[in-house]
Amino acid sequence: MTSRLLVHGKVDEFVGRLLKSAEVIAPHRTPGGDLLYASVDTAADVSWDPGIPMESLKRFLMPQRETILQFSKNGKMSVSAVYDDKPKVFLAARCCDVTGVSVLDAMFGGTYQDPYYLMRRGQSTFIALTCQQPDTNCFCVCGDAGPFLKKGYDQQWTWLPEGMLVEIGSEQGQRLADAHADLLVPAELEHIKRRHQLAKEAEGRFGDFRAYVAGAMRKLSMEEVESEVWEQLADHCVDCGGCAFLCPTCSCFTTTDRFDGAEGIRERHWDACSYSCYAREASGHNPRAHRKTRLHARFFHKLSHQWAQRNARHACVCCGRCLTTCLAWAHMPAAAEAIRRGAMK
Amino acid sequence: MNNPYLPLLATIQSIKPETYDTSTFTVQIDEAEARKTFAYRPGQFLEVSIFGAGEAPFCIASNAYGRDTLDITVRRIGRVTKALHDLGVGGQIGLRGPLGNWFPLEEVAGKHLLFIAGGLGLAPLRPQIYETYRQRAKFASVTVLCGARTQGDLVYLDELTQWQTQEGMSCHLTVDVATDGWAGNVGVVGTLLPQVKWPAQEGVAFVCGPPIMIKFVVQDLERMGFTGETIFTTLEQHMRCGIGKCNHCMMGDKYVCLDGPVFTYAQLQRIPEFHT
Q: Of B26, B238, B176, B257, nearest to A110 (Cα)?
């Protein structure tokens, strides 16, 4: 599939056309100065600044809280499902976040298909924007999740002085390019060369801060992690669940019913495996009553080969959000380092 | 797209009190077509919705053969189970399933079968006991050992009494504390193991009960010659979705809901949570 060039003067028109047929979710600078993915109304709402949005794309594919069933009782009960299948375009999505979606795909696909996620996913188009300037806590080079993607996107845009280099990654991305062919020109070999040069330069801009995820994976998968590692991490962790909520791939959920006797709903909402009540049973028995066992379960699920085999890849896209939010020092880079060394520094 | 979260509606047909806090609910799926096509194997479980209270997993406790109703035996202990107990006959509930794996049947043909249950742990074993008894000729013998705190805590007491004299199977009961004129064995369920007269190498054990019971019964069984591969158990866990999505029942590299709830003891030993 050939690459195209979208000259800067045409970008807003392209976005304007996307807005006519779909909800466009893109980085947006809030009045307070935060960078967030948001549903935008105009091309001017899109922020093209470098940096990582505070939250991932997860909430648009799996809302923090969503109604999955409706029930009503009129003599007899009746139950029906509620779906969201509005088309969505994720514009200027960060590479790590697009990679995170591939983990969610594996989680929600498989033997049992999750219709709520998959229906939104089926109606979604991902236009990734390559990162030329990593943010403070980014370490995607350690997890094969950026700063430029090799796969997983429908289109991947790279900012060049002449315009956006548009790489096509799927048939869906091709169809989108074809539909707006009048705004695109074929890319020159020079543009492609520059893109590869920029990718190399971007990789060089990551600081000394690294998480050697692969080393941690080896020890976790072979169950060779010293128990002191979990005890030390448990001393730090405060069970706030922030890492799980901000993680692009954490998808644990629980459900709650609301019913007034006539009309009701079943909602599902995010849950976090670090919560002490997460695995507790009605009898009071709790297989993970101790924080260290919860942390072990968390990092084993995210990084072991056992789970990577089931989910197509390990579940850390190295976006650094857990590091940004962690009140203590029990985030992924800290854990990966402690696991690898056999103790916290 | 098929929606695995959408429950079938079912109605409570009868409620049989088993102990002071536990009852067996016999339910029937409302829709005739779904009732006909609903098939399960002993060991599988259901996600039961009590609309308004929520959803919780329960093993299917009924004989899988020749019935168009399902039994679930439920202790009144949490929000969902209290709401179920309060519903009464005619109440409508939701069912999703059958979910999970099942006990081996063809694989254990020719073996001596030993069922060991503690308290409500008899519920998930009950369909397997009925099924193996129905196909009794395929197995060398069927033995049921069942224990509870007191006589009043024994579930399915009428059936247990019947099994004690039933031809083709042997059934032995024990209680931790003798009350109400109990004249039988007193002691933990492991004290019934001398009743097993055949060599352990030719047997298979199905064990279910509270964690402490499983721990010590398995030690006894291993001493007798059973191995991790010939001891089967079924786990109860906080399973929110039952289909490997919500992650609550994750243990080591397994989901109890998808990879279980039936595990060999050898599989359990490889699960870190099982040791803590």
A: B257
